[in-house]
Amino acid sequence: MNAKVNSAAMLAAALLLGLGGCGQSKQESAAVAPPAPPAAEPAPAPVTNESLVDAAIASTERLPGDAEQDTWRKPKEVLMFLGVKPGMAVLDYFSAGGYYTELLSRIVGEQGKVIAYNNAAYLKFAKDVPQQRYGANRLTNVAQVTTPPAELSVAPNALDAALFVMSYHDLYWQPKKEPDWGVIDPAQALAKLVPALKSGAVVVVVDHVARAGGDTSKTVDALHRIDPAVIKRDFEAAGLTFDGESTALRHEADDHTKPVFDPSVQHQTDQVIYRFRKP
Question: Domain 65-277 belongs to what topology?
């Protein structure tokens, strides 16, 4: 009997406790419940090298006509392969009108520097484009340098990168009707450049492919093309290490026999993209 009474008392007590919980006012429940956390804002997208390259190419402040060249030049692939980043010092070798110089300028930013290097003939070839591009201090981190390759002077260990775009072959060019050109020794030109590169700096060379063998100067004079093996030989002889190749501008339909200005292959030539690194 006592056991039944105790069991009933325990059950009643349990029910009373339960009813007490159920009888708590809504106001009291709201006061006790913790506030819901605010909705988390999405984190900003990280600034990556690719995003900086994309932004430079997409800039509406580029010169008129530059964007029209993007399709056949493929600047994103070239600049990503170069690995250009904010704060770098980069030399654009035989930069002509500065298509790549401007993109480099936008990527390296205010803390970086770009040297737009030409000889007198290259600057003349570019006509009034350099004035449009650099006039009125338009690109404040760009320095124009115009001098023969043998006289190019850059401080030792000053450069993080250098870029040759369809221009290295011209170091072998020996035009007879260009008094401003002079005679250029490719080995001497590279001997001026390499000491200016920091240890670990890279050089990317983009150029029109010629058939293997033959006289390089004659091939350049006739076609403005160069055997890729000559490029590799020259840069390795100058003390740089071959560091990779991109196939972004290879065009198998090009048989390497036509001048690069021939309408049937212009802007669609087979081009090699080599990267070299200073040890």
Answer: Rossmann fold (3.40.50)
Q: Are 225 and 219 in contact (CB under 8 A)?
A: yes
Strand order in the sheet with 142-146: 142-146, 113-118, 89-93, 159-165, 197-208, 271-277, 241-246
Side-chain-side CA neighbours of residue 164 (13 Å): 25
Task: Give me the amino acid identity at 60.
Answer: T
Spatial CA neighbour of 105 closest among 154, 55, 70: 55
Integer-rounded Cα radius of gyration of the chain = 32
pLDDT band of residue 182 (cuts 50, 70, 90) is confident
Q: What does the pLDDT average to over 145-169?
A: 97
Residue type, 261: F
User: Do the Cβ atoms of 100 and 92 come closer than 8 Å?
Assistant: yes
Q: In which element (H, E) is residue 132 found?
A: helix 129-134
Q: Which of 57, 66, 56, 75 is CA-nearest to residue 133?
A: 66
- With cut-offs at 50, 70 and 90, classify the pLDDT of residue 207: very high
> Which position has the token pair 């043998």?
150
Rounded distance between C-alpha atoms, residue 169 and residue 230, angstroms:
9
Report the interhelical angle of 75-82 vs 49-58 (nearest 10°): 140
